[in-house]
Structures are given as C-alpha cells and as structure tokens.
Amino acid sequence: MCLGADSIMMTRQATLGPIDPSVNGPLNPEIPGAPPQQRTPVSVEAINGYLAFAKEEIGLNSSEAKLAVLRSLADRVHPLVLGEVYRSRAQIRMLGQRLIQRQLTDKARVKKVLDFLCSESGSHDYTIYRQEARDELGLKVERPDDALYAIIRDQ
User: What span, in angstroms and rounded, lies between the C-alpha atoms of 4 and 58?
Assistant: First the structure.
C-alpha cells in the first residue's frame, strides 16, 4: 500500500515488506488432517521459485524436462490454481507499477524496484528498513519530527 503514497513516513522501528500474494480457493491443495474446506494457500512466488530452481539450479532446460517438472507440479497443485497464480503474478506487478509511479518516474528504476519487491527479496519475511527503502529502493521516505514521533509512539 505504501507504494501509492506521495511519501512514506517511517520511524526508526518502521519496516516494509515485499509484495508476496498467495492464491487461496477450493481447488488449492488440501491440508493433511485438516477439515476438507481448509486449504493450503499457494504462494505466487513459491511456484515461480520452484520453476526457477528446476531451470537454473538443476539445469532442466529441455522441453521434455520442463514438461516433466510442470506435470509434477500440476499433480500437486490443481492446474486452475496454477493459472490463477500466473494471473495474480501479472496483476500484482501491474498494480505495483501503477502505484509506485507516484514516487518514481524512471521506468528502469520502477522495474528494478518491482523486481526486488516481487521476487528478488526472497520471501515474505524479508524486512526493509527505512535506510534501504530510501537509499537502495529510492522511495520517498520521511522521518517524523520529535513531536510527531511522540504521537506515533504513544498510540
């Protein structure tokens, strides 16, 4: 949400996190031992990470090998869920781009920041502190003055 702001007010303790959507629906994988209506959320980037791992780390580059990896995945995650993962990934990047253009106008910079927030940061628990948000991502970060910080702290 902060990407759509003109600037981001961050205290010393404030943190931001990556964009990490999950798909959840009745066709998602079941959770063993849980009621049937309770399903495992499927992380958009976990699917992307699995496919990248197969290609980049294991070196599966032939069409046959890629098809085998996809079949293995589709045996565990319903193909319609995989389609929704693909659509969600495209949608979150589109929304992120629309929002961040309030703070960044250089298209190459926008792409770099979105790549980092959507996939290169590793996982949902990656913590972005204000210095990284300002200096490395180039976001418009403001520090609260002492009076505003006191109000924020006391809430």
Answer: 38
Q: What's the predicted TM-score (pTM) here? A: 0.82
Which are the contacts of 23, defined by CB distance < 8 A and separation ≥ 6? 41, 42, 44, 81, 84, 85, 88
Nearest-angstrom CA–CA distance, 102 and 110: 10
Q: What are phi and psi of 31, to 5 degrees?
A: -95, 115
φ and ψ of 72, to 5 deg:
-60, -45
Q: Give the per-residue pLDDT at 17.
A: 93
Encode pLDDT of 79-117 as tens digits: 999 999 999 999 999 999 999 988 888 999 999 999 999
How far CA 32 is from CA of 29, 35, 37, 77, 106, in Å, comes to: 9, 8, 11, 14, 47
